[in-house]
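Worked example 4.2. Below are the chains of a multi-component assembly; read each line carefully before continuing.
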Amino acid sequence: MKKNLGVNILLDVYGTLLTDRQRVTLELYYGEDLSLGEISEETGITRQGVMNCIHKSEKKLFELETKLGLIRKFRELSEDIDRLEGLIIQAEMTNREVLAQIDDLMVAIKGKI
Amino acid sequence: MKKNLGVNILLDVYGTLLTDRQRVTLELYYGEDLSLGEISEETGITRQGVMNCIHKSEKKLFELETKLGLIRKFRELSEDIDRLEGLIIQAEMTNREVLAQIDDLMVAIKGKI
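Applying the procedure described above to all two chains together yields the following C-alpha coordinates:
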Protein backbone atom coordinates (compact mmCIF):
# COMPACT_ATOMS: atom_id res chain seq x y z
CA MET A 1 0.00 0.00 0.00
CA LYS A 2 1.57 3.27 -1.16
CA LYS A 3 0.93 6.44 0.84
CA ASN A 4 -0.77 9.16 -1.19
CA LEU A 5 0.66 12.36 0.26
CA GLY A 6 -2.10 14.52 -1.30
CA VAL A 7 -4.37 12.96 1.33
CA ASN A 8 -2.75 15.13 4.01
CA ILE A 9 -4.14 18.33 2.52
CA LEU A 10 -7.52 16.69 1.85
CA LEU A 11 -7.58 15.67 5.52
CA ASP A 12 -6.77 19.22 6.52
CA VAL A 13 -9.65 20.66 4.50
CA TYR A 14 -12.34 17.99 4.83
CA GLY A 15 -11.29 16.12 8.00
CA THR A 16 -14.21 17.54 9.99
CA LEU A 17 -16.59 15.67 7.66
CA LEU A 18 -15.11 12.24 8.48
CA THR A 19 -16.16 10.17 11.48
CA ASP A 20 -13.82 10.34 14.48
CA ARG A 21 -12.53 6.85 13.73
CA GLN A 22 -11.85 7.66 10.07
CA ARG A 23 -10.09 10.91 10.93
CA VAL A 24 -7.96 9.41 13.71
CA THR A 25 -6.91 6.47 11.50
CA LEU A 26 -5.89 8.75 8.62
CA GLU A 27 -4.07 11.10 11.00
CA LEU A 28 -2.05 8.20 12.42
CA TYR A 29 -1.30 6.89 8.94
CA TYR A 30 -0.50 10.17 7.18
CA GLY A 31 0.17 12.65 9.98
CA GLU A 32 2.15 10.40 12.33
CA ASP A 33 3.38 8.15 9.48
CA LEU A 34 2.57 4.95 11.42
CA SER A 35 2.37 1.59 9.62
CA LEU A 36 -0.86 -0.41 9.31
CA GLY A 37 0.48 -2.79 11.96
CA GLU A 38 1.28 0.03 14.39
CA ILE A 39 -2.17 1.59 13.92
CA SER A 40 -3.74 -1.84 14.47
CA GLU A 41 -1.84 -2.15 17.77
CA GLU A 42 -2.69 1.38 18.85
CA THR A 43 -6.41 1.24 18.03
CA GLY A 44 -7.22 -2.43 18.61
CA ILE A 45 -8.67 -2.70 15.09
CA THR A 46 -7.39 -5.57 12.91
CA ARG A 47 -4.77 -4.74 10.28
CA GLN A 48 -7.36 -5.52 7.57
CA GLY A 49 -9.88 -3.29 9.36
CA VAL A 50 -7.39 -0.42 9.46
CA MET A 51 -6.68 -0.86 5.72
CA ASN A 52 -10.39 -0.88 4.86
CA CYS A 53 -10.98 2.20 7.01
CA ILE A 54 -8.12 4.06 5.28
CA HIS A 55 -9.42 3.12 1.81
CA LYS A 56 -12.98 4.14 2.65
CA SER A 57 -11.88 7.43 4.26
CA GLU A 58 -9.61 8.32 1.33
CA LYS A 59 -12.46 7.62 -1.09
CA LYS A 60 -14.73 9.91 0.93
CA LEU A 61 -12.10 12.70 0.91
CA PHE A 62 -11.57 12.47 -2.86
CA GLU A 63 -15.34 12.49 -3.43
CA LEU A 64 -15.65 15.62 -1.27
CA GLU A 65 -13.00 17.36 -3.37
CA THR A 66 -14.82 16.30 -6.56
CA LYS A 67 -18.10 17.69 -5.20
CA LEU A 68 -16.87 20.87 -3.45
CA GLY A 69 -13.49 21.51 -5.19
CA LEU A 70 -12.19 23.57 -2.25
CA ILE A 71 -8.53 22.68 -2.77
CA ARG A 72 -8.77 23.60 -6.46
CA LYS A 73 -10.48 26.89 -5.52
CA PHE A 74 -7.92 27.70 -2.79
CA ARG A 75 -5.11 27.05 -5.29
CA GLU A 76 -6.69 29.36 -7.88
CA LEU A 77 -7.23 32.03 -5.24
CA SER A 78 -3.66 31.63 -4.04
CA GLU A 79 -2.39 32.13 -7.62
CA ASP A 80 -4.50 35.29 -7.95
CA ILE A 81 -3.05 36.62 -4.67
CA ASP A 82 0.50 35.89 -5.90
CA ARG A 83 -0.26 37.84 -9.09
CA LEU A 84 -1.70 40.70 -7.02
CA GLU A 85 1.45 40.82 -4.86
CA GLY A 86 3.54 40.91 -8.04
CA LEU A 87 1.48 43.85 -9.35
CA ILE A 88 1.83 45.76 -6.06
CA ILE A 89 5.61 45.32 -6.14
CA GLN A 90 5.60 46.43 -9.80
CA ALA A 91 3.54 49.52 -8.90
CA GLU A 92 5.89 50.32 -6.00
CA MET A 93 8.93 50.02 -8.28
CA THR A 94 7.34 52.20 -10.96
CA ASN A 95 6.50 54.79 -8.32
CA ARG A 96 10.03 54.61 -6.93
CA GLU A 97 11.52 55.04 -10.40
CA VAL A 98 9.36 58.08 -11.11
CA LEU A 99 10.18 59.54 -7.67
CA ALA A 100 13.91 58.91 -8.29
CA GLN A 101 13.65 60.78 -11.60
CA ILE A 102 11.83 63.63 -9.88
CA ASP A 103 14.60 63.69 -7.22
CA ASP A 104 17.30 63.86 -9.94
CA LEU A 105 15.45 66.67 -11.65
CA MET A 106 15.11 68.56 -8.36
CA VAL A 107 18.86 68.31 -7.81
CA ALA A 108 19.50 69.51 -11.37
CA ILE A 109 17.03 72.40 -10.98
CA LYS A 110 18.53 73.39 -7.61
CA GLY A 111 21.97 73.35 -9.25
CA LYS A 112 20.72 75.93 -11.74
CA ILE A 113 19.27 78.33 -9.15
CA MET B 1 -43.44 26.24 8.63
CA LYS B 2 -41.44 29.43 8.09
CA LYS B 3 -38.98 29.59 5.20
CA ASN B 4 -35.41 30.26 6.30
CA LEU B 5 -33.92 32.31 3.47
CA GLY B 6 -30.35 31.66 4.63
CA VAL B 7 -30.90 28.12 3.36
CA ASN B 8 -30.63 29.38 -0.24
CA ILE B 9 -26.97 30.30 0.17
CA LEU B 10 -26.25 27.09 2.13
CA LEU B 11 -27.84 25.16 -0.75
CA ASP B 12 -25.65 27.06 -3.20
CA VAL B 13 -22.45 26.17 -1.33
CA TYR B 14 -23.16 22.67 -0.04
CA GLY B 15 -25.93 21.45 -2.39
CA THR B 16 -23.58 18.97 -4.09
CA LEU B 17 -23.26 17.10 -0.78
CA LEU B 18 -27.00 16.42 -0.50
CA THR B 19 -28.73 13.47 -2.17
CA ASP B 20 -30.54 14.26 -5.43
CA ARG B 21 -33.90 14.00 -3.67
CA GLN B 22 -32.84 16.32 -0.84
CA ARG B 23 -31.41 18.89 -3.25
CA VAL B 24 -34.40 18.84 -5.61
CA THR B 25 -36.85 19.19 -2.72
CA LEU B 26 -35.00 22.17 -1.23
CA GLU B 27 -34.65 23.78 -4.66
CA LEU B 28 -38.39 23.52 -5.24
CA TYR B 29 -39.12 24.88 -1.75
CA TYR B 30 -36.55 27.69 -1.62
CA GLY B 31 -35.54 28.30 -5.25
CA GLU B 32 -38.97 27.95 -6.89
CA ASP B 33 -40.85 28.99 -3.73
CA LEU B 34 -43.38 26.13 -4.05
CA SER B 35 -45.57 25.15 -1.08
CA LEU B 36 -45.28 21.77 0.65
CA GLY B 37 -48.53 20.73 -1.09
CA GLU B 38 -47.23 21.72 -4.52
CA ILE B 39 -43.95 19.84 -3.99
CA SER B 40 -45.94 16.82 -2.81
CA GLU B 41 -47.98 16.91 -6.04
CA GLU B 42 -44.89 17.43 -8.22
CA THR B 43 -42.76 14.68 -6.65
CA GLY B 44 -45.38 12.14 -5.57
CA ILE B 45 -44.01 12.22 -1.99
CA THR B 46 -46.56 12.77 0.81
CA ARG B 47 -46.79 16.27 2.29
CA GLN B 48 -45.39 14.88 5.56
CA GLY B 49 -42.57 13.19 3.64
CA VAL B 50 -41.70 16.45 1.91
CA MET B 51 -41.62 18.27 5.25
CA ASN B 52 -39.39 15.62 6.82
CA CYS B 53 -37.05 15.70 3.83
CA ILE B 54 -36.79 19.51 4.05
CA HIS B 55 -36.07 19.40 7.80
CA LYS B 56 -33.45 16.67 7.40
CA SER B 57 -31.76 18.43 4.46
CA GLU B 58 -31.69 21.79 6.26
CA LYS B 59 -30.15 20.12 9.31
CA LYS B 60 -27.48 18.57 7.09
CA LEU B 61 -26.70 21.95 5.48
CA PHE B 62 -26.38 23.72 8.84
CA GLU B 63 -24.14 20.92 10.14
CA LEU B 64 -21.91 21.27 7.07
CA GLU B 65 -21.55 25.01 7.72
CA THR B 66 -20.71 24.29 11.37
CA LYS B 67 -18.05 21.78 10.30
CA LEU B 68 -16.56 23.54 7.25
CA GLY B 69 -17.58 27.19 7.84
CA LEU B 70 -17.27 28.07 4.14
CA ILE B 71 -19.92 30.79 4.18
CA ARG B 72 -18.28 32.43 7.20
CA LYS B 73 -14.87 32.21 5.46
CA PHE B 74 -16.22 33.59 2.17
CA ARG B 75 -17.77 36.49 4.08
CA GLU B 76 -14.51 37.27 5.88
CA LEU B 77 -12.60 37.06 2.59
CA SER B 78 -15.16 39.29 0.93
CA GLU B 79 -14.72 41.89 3.70
CA ASP B 80 -10.93 41.76 3.26
CA ILE B 81 -11.33 42.31 -0.49
CA ASP B 82 -13.63 45.29 0.15
CA ARG B 83 -10.98 46.78 2.47
CA LEU B 84 -8.30 46.12 -0.16
CA GLU B 85 -10.37 47.94 -2.79
CA GLY B 86 -10.79 50.83 -0.39
CA LEU B 87 -7.03 50.99 0.16
CA ILE B 88 -6.33 50.93 -3.60
CA ILE B 89 -8.75 53.83 -4.14
CA GLN B 90 -7.10 55.67 -1.23
CA ALA B 91 -3.64 55.09 -2.73
CA GLU B 92 -4.86 56.32 -6.13
CA MET B 93 -6.31 59.45 -4.55
CA THR B 94 -3.15 60.14 -2.55
CA ASN B 95 -1.09 59.68 -5.72
CA ARG B 96 -3.42 61.98 -7.64
CA GLU B 97 -3.24 64.64 -4.91
CA VAL B 98 0.56 64.53 -4.88
CA LEU B 99 0.64 64.63 -8.69
CA ALA B 100 -1.79 67.58 -8.67
CA GLN B 101 0.52 69.44 -6.23
CA ILE B 102 3.51 68.65 -8.45
CA ASP B 103 1.55 69.99 -11.45
CA ASP B 104 0.72 73.21 -9.58
CA LEU B 105 4.37 73.62 -8.62
CA MET B 106 5.45 73.06 -12.22
CA VAL B 107 3.11 75.82 -13.39
CA ALA B 108 4.42 78.15 -10.67
CA ILE B 109 8.03 77.31 -11.56
CA LYS B 110 7.37 77.81 -15.29
CA GLY B 111 5.76 81.17 -14.46
CA LYS B 112 9.04 82.23 -12.83
CA ILE B 113 11.29 81.27 -15.77
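Take a moment to check your reading of the output against the notes. Chain B touches chain A through ten residues (CB under 8 Å). Chain B is about 85% helix and 0% strand.
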